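Protocol step 6 of 9: fold each sequence in the batch and record its structure tokens directly after the sequence line. For illustration, a two-sequence batch is reproduced in full.

Sequence one:
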Amino acid sequence: MNLKKSASFLLAVLLLSSLSVTAGGTETLSVTLVSNPYTIEKDQYHIITMEGFFTRGLPGDPALPQKTYDVELPYNTDLQTVDIQILWEDSEEIPGLYEIGPSPLPAADDFFSATIQNGKNTDVYSKNAFYPARCVEILRTYQTRDKKYVRVQFTPFQYNPVTKLLLLNQKVKIKVSWTTTWMKYTAPPGPGIGYVIVTTNSTVNNSVRLNAFKNHVQSQGFTVYTVTETQYGASGGQQRAINIRNWLQANWPILNIKYVLLIGDPDPDDPTVGDSFGDVPMLMCWPNPGSVLDQTPTDYFYADLTGTWDSDGDGFYGEFGQDTVDFGPEVYVGRIPVYGGDYATLDNILNKFINFTGADTSIMLPMAISNYQDEHHAANGCVAGWGRTDGLDLPQQVITNITNPAGFTNYVMYEQSGFTGRGHDPVPVGAFGYKAPLTNANVINQWANDYGIVFWWGHGDATGAWRKYWGSAGDDGDNIVEDAFCSTTGQDECVWIPFLSSGDITVDMETFTFQASCENGYPENANNLQYSLLKKGAVSTVGSTRISWYPIGLWTYWGIIDNAGIGYTYVWFLVFGQSAGEALYNGKNFLTNPWGWMGWQNLFDFNLYGDPSMYLEGPLLRPPPEGEPPKQVNLTRSICPLANYTIDRAKDLLEEAKNLLEEAKNAGKDVSGIELVILKAEEIIEKARRYCLGNNCIPGNYLGLLAIEMLEGVIEDLKGLL
């Protein structure tokens, strides 16, 4: 198993918890970052691969190994004052000359400007200087519930594109500093874990299954609250969205709210045009400030309750570079749309949630072509240069890293139609995991097999997921794939066909979807594909409200916010034991954004239709944190073998950490804080083992992963001391 994972400095968490801080004073913490073994291979460019690091960068900039670390800060930290200083670097020049290629560009004409030539940012590649200028930088600060963090990124290699030299920083010591304030956190009174249903009085009065669903949620151990305009206020439109968030901000600490289910019409309000809007609206955001074309509705507004979504006070929310959205979720949000007072459909969906017993351990991966090599189309100005981009590269990583270790069966479809022998062939039948051609009939027929997860890649609009292939009668014969804007015939040379449309699935399944397409969750359209599948065909759906962006060329999981990367992380977290709400919002918060406003748009885009507390494995009965596992528990069907593997891995790391601790002690190092972390990790491993003994393997797996994360951070710190 080769799951890449961002490590948090849990050593810093423990040390900071024991600091005596003075309000208004400046506090500091020193951390040593250490590089890992690496390889350099030559293809078109030299590619550096480092264990535990992603090879990536800003679009068009040199692709170098990078790793992010979340350092926890005291709760009374003023996040605007956080800074880092590099104290020293242990560096060496790598012998030889190297051609380091650029990081992929998003599929947007915005990045094809005068500074981007042949995919390279000439502002960087023409400069006789090491890039990046600093090997450690702050990416962002954020808060999630009662925790505050600074995310730092470590880039061990620095590259001079003029001299072709590489510099490796093997170890770097940094000092993190911050100022504290008089803010004091008061723990919630402890009424249990809160689950809030945000809806309207009309829904409460007309739904005949809402009370049954509330009872079902309560049976899972939650304290359930129903909130309507009686509590959050009668205003409509944008102000209603603000009022709902204001209520959540005021009450999540008091009621210990973890999950929020929105029930109502999600149609957002655009206050600039006086449009219609729903009774429980998404918030309309402007990730690309000033651009009407890039307005994006989102429910993220209700999850990040500590970010300032309109910090410049101009009435336009979620503007990249102008507002301080921090993306750390305080609560996990799902939604059931209700259009036109259709309470019968709402009740059917609620019944589906109540009766859900667990998804099948199987995944279907329909993969379409996004663009061909050197395709000419309006977005690139009819100029060659885009690398071929299709779903061919995704299934192998999903299956190898996520679903096979969890015991899933897999079914993959690729594009098999189109011209052959002219330089732009369809996907070969020998492609990884290939089972059948991607067609509408095949997708519908396979859906009947009740896959636990369906994760697709394709183009999209509000009511369909689309495939395209080069094969139209409008082809002008020049062996260049062209759209109607570029073709000499004025016709699109590609055939566009939906491989799934709203209403295609007529039988209910216990399926979780991630729809890596544009606009499938367009909330203004009551027939949007994401909602259509929630009604019939799935139990939980994630789709995009507007355009979602993908990287051009060979796809790989590199820990950023491209649409398939969000989907990969969602499926990974879902399979490894997080609820649907946790998997989506923790996943998005986990990823790095090198794409500016387009990254923000992707983060806003993908929203959950479904119960945010729902697990892939079905209802979860949790034992008391310190008590014996209950005798009657949900026996998971795939997580238990995975959890046992996770615990064994944690035990191996524990042994390694203890050996390194002993070496550090013998070397006279002060490791008292590290030793406490190791003891805590050992306690967590024992608790995970106890969960698994009771066949309650989702929390067992979660705790095992937590122990691994702690121990990986400890081992890295101990290696830095030795």
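Sequence two, same batch, same settings:
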Amino acid sequence: MQRVSFAIRQQFPRALILFLVLFAATFCGYSLVWKLRIPLSDVDASRLERQTVEITSDVSVGKYSNTSSGSLDGIRIQVIWSKEMVAPEYGREVELTGFLKARGFSTYERYLFTKGVSATLTVSDIRSQRWSDTLVGRIGAFRYRLVDCIRRCDGSTAGTGLLRAVLLGDRRDVGQTDEVFRATGLSHMLSVSGSHLSIVMLCLGFVLMRFGIGKKSTFVFSALVGFLFVVLTTSAEATVRSYLMLVFGGCVFFFRRRTDPLTTLGIGGIALLVGNPIVVLSVGFQLSMAAVFGMLLFGRLMSVWLDAYANFIPRLVRETFSISAVAQISTLPISIPVFKMVSLVGPFSNVLVGGLLTVTLALGLGGIVASVVARSLSLPIFFLATRCCDAIISVAQELALLSWGSIEIDTWGIPISVVILLWLVAIYLFWPLPKNGIRHIVAPGMKTLLVVACSVCTVFLLFPSALSFVSGGVANGSKDGVYVLDVGQGDAILVSSAQKTALIDAGSDSIALKKGLDKIGVTRIDTLIFTHTHQDHIGGAFGLGKRYGIQAIMVANGVGYDSDVSKIARSLAAPVTEISEGDRLEVGRIELTCLGPRNKVTDPDDNGSCLIMLADEPVGASYEYESVLITGDAEADSVKEAFSRSSLAAGEIGVLKVGHHGSAASLDTQLLSAMEPERAVISVGENSYGHPTQKALTLLHSFHIPYLRTDLSGTIFLVSVGQ
């Protein structure tokens, strides 16, 4: 076969030099730039001081506190807010009191260094705040109004969250969409990058040109609007790099100079490094540079092969697939050690949602312009944009369910990355051009048949739920019984009987939950029950959508108005019902009985307020099921109290679902002596809490109670014992 042409090969010296320069900067940056610590004079971490800080990022929500980036006298700091405080918005100037601490050398503080943070400020009190007089403050105020407009446009929670992410760089309400997009190779959509900026500037340029504006004036105005868009989206490194490349490339074109994409990439990267050397340590910057670098080196080669062997596919689809595949492969040496996952459906997902992203951004820009005139004009436009976002999320969720859609790489990440890097170099040097194309082996009359066949295969391969529609919409292919699903560190328990289903808790990961449900053939869930509102019990429900036709949501008395429960109820279009001790729910031939709590819940996050449910056959039934006690995160004291108030006797519990993933307080001798369960199940995954604890396991051993763990056995099916 013909080898790569000399015209392509002659780029190699420039490509090699650029790669070596960036690699050397990445390798040496940490050791060299670490010494450039910005000194903070007269800093005493034990002294409460009044400071004035400009907020330069959206708030990041943590388990115990929230954080924002801020600027203090030109120094970048991390601002730490307590959970009780309402963190100020991007662009606010805040007068506060707090404890300022210079960055040290611990592992976490080294991580802060890679973000350019020189100190941390733990806030004790917010005295006053206002919009800053700087450009960031003025645009931040405008951005805040846009966020409010998007929230009020009556779109779905997931759709509005995604729209804010792709249009404004605001990822606070992305939720489970982040995990879905990571598994499907769409994470770049959640971080405003070159693709977003290019679409924005091209859409604006197209409109201006249609109104007869000259090319140079269009470029200048588009560059100005592009700069404002960068600030509007909080000036992420990838966005700044893309903006510099686009502006530099446009200047070269209008000055009638010969363009060279690799040179443009190098100048954009170097300009960013000169302005902020620490950016070389940013994974986002490294991924962005690697993706563009790979597209410039391999894009033409990939296009030639696709043109030769897939010329029956529309050119736009071929080009989208080529760009996505090349970008993803080029970033593997960096992404594998960091994210420990490789998405195999990334190129397909980008082809499917690429057009929707363009429409979403175009509508978003229209909404921004309309909001300047009147807020009411922007609401219907933003609503249409959220519908596009809903469609993107639906496609991503379907792709995330594919068993082959992504591969997790827990070990050997770095060696695999080195092998891939060497493989890329070999491909560039020795990849041959095709000699013959598909046009030589496929008759013209066969092209239509090929297109139809590929379309049908794509529908049923990428969208497994379509099979249930064609087959008549089977409601539930699972067997009668109770399934303890393997969803990692969390709870998700399915009760299934006579084509009826109830899901008790939803874990934290919607992808793992859906895969578990699909594996046992569940296509409909009648009732969703939350034992309490911890994220590892309700988080997975945010990504369920309307696919399973959930008709009702049940929570403990007093939890119905919880904000997270309300969001889930809106996304599922399902009513919320509060239940309490003694309430019953029939799921086919299995009866669920609520054993607790007795009183109205005042703190939904308290483990002691968990619903405790008993799955058993109804009283007087002619058949028998093995009773299962489902405890959520309830610990020994709560379970003992609920069991003692019930009519159950020792030995009547067939299976005990151990509470709180087997924590130290989940079991005690009094509980096991009173209950005498025949078996036990622990729902647990990889965690940093030490679950299940040795104390809980020792107690089970001492009472001779056999047990299974979902992290070792996967999904556990508890079968019926009689008819």
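Proceed to step 7 once all outputs are recorded. Observation for sequence two: Confidence is low (pLDDT under 50) at residues 1-9, 30-45, 437-447, 460-475.
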